[in-house]
Amino acid sequence: MVFFPSSAAPTFSGEPSTRGWWLFALLGIALLLAGAFILGDVAFASVISAIFIAWAIVIAGILQIIHAFSARGWKGFVLDFLLGVLYIAGGSILLSNPVAASVKLTLALGIIWIVSGIFRVILSAALRREGGWGLLFSGLISILAGAVILSRWPESGLWVLGLCLGIDLIFHGLAWIVYSLSVHAARALQKA
Predict the structure, then answer these.
(1) Which among 19, 21, 20 is positioned nearest to 180, based on CA atoms?
(2) Other C-beta atoms within 10 Å of 113: how many?
(3) For residue 135, how many other CB atoms are within 10 A of its CB?
(4) I want to staple 139 with a disulfide (CB 3.0 to 4.6 A). Which of 29, 81, 117, 157 is the partner?
(5) Are 43 and 159 in contact (CB under 8 A)?
């Protein structure tokens, strides 16, 4: 549960809370600084990302096994249990060598970006009359990014995850800062 000061509580009627704009700005600044910190050492951030993903997989496996035992009499017990064991084993393998995990995750990321880019290009052709140019551009960028990652693999596995995380945090932070400024401007207009 997230707690907001009463003056900054978000509203769900489509109207943003204008009194707590500085909280949005503070969040944006924190995300921006975190992104800059991560970009300072992308190799370290890549390994930390691989460890985080591995632990998420292990926890998912544990929850899968708990679910298998909690749903007594369910016909899928064995499959549910085995899936949990598989998750735990896979996460444990990733935890045993986070650097290798980072390299393997980067390979998967490069392949996923190329495949998703191809599908977006195909979809843009189907939607060209409705203005599918954005999808075409997005698909081409995704294919290019995936190709760059794969052309430099396995070395790219040591920096890609950290780079992506750092860039994502910076843009996420900038988005919150811009949002906070627009909320602040709306508040100023309300007072006028």
Answers:
(1) 21
(2) 21
(3) 21
(4) 117
(5) yes
Instruction: Give the 3-state secondary structure of residue 183.
Output: helix
Q: Distance between CA atoms of 140 and 131, rounded to whole angstroms? A: 16
Neighbour tally for 66: CB within 10 Å: 12
pLDDT in tens, the chain (192 residues): 444 444 444 544 455 555 677 888 898 899 899 989 988 888 888 888 888 888 999 999 999 899 888 876 667 778 888 888 998 998 898 899 888 888 888 888 889 889 988 988 888 887 777 666 777 888 888 899 889 889 988 888 888 878 888 888 888 888 888 888 888 887 778 777
Q: How far is Cα 136 from Cα 192, in angstroms, rounded to an integer?
A: 44
Chain Cα centroid distance, residue 160: 14
pTM score, whole prediction:
0.60
Q: Is 61 exposed, middle or buried (0-12, 13-18, 19+ CB in 10 A)?
A: buried
Tokens 């000061």 sit on residue = 5
End-to-end CA separation in angstroms for the chain: 35
Buried b (16+ CB within 10 A) or exposed e, 151-160: eebeebbbbb
Neighbours of 12 (CB within 10 A): 6
Give, as one character, the DSSP assignment of residue 3.
-
